[in-house]
Amino acid sequence: MKKCLHFKIEVSGKVQGVWFRKYTQEKAELLDIKGFVMNLPDGKVYIEAESNDPDKLQILLDWLHQGSPLSKVSEVKLLHKKECIGYNNFQIRK
After folding, report:
1. Domain membership of residue 23 as a residue range
2. Mean of the pLDDT values across residues 33-50?
3. Catalytic one among 39, 52, 88, 93?
4. Contact partners, residue 71, CB within 8 Å, separation at least 6
5. pTM, whole model, 2 decimals?
């Protein structure tokens, strides 16, 4: 069995007010990734994502460079990678 991985990700650019969180949630659910997405006060988006399948996490990371149709992503940073903490679903946090 593969070890569950937990990624902390920060996305910069025009990523707020463009449905970025909703599209990220839909993509994560499609990939069966658990965690959350939220806007940060500095205009960035913060994501915690975890899965037993590192390939699915990589697909999400790759997708984040594109984001929602109206977004303009300038940078995707993988801040931290560790073992899962056990999220049950993928949520949009306020």
Report:
1. 5-93
2. 98
3. 39
4. 13, 14, 15, 18, 19, 20
5. 0.95
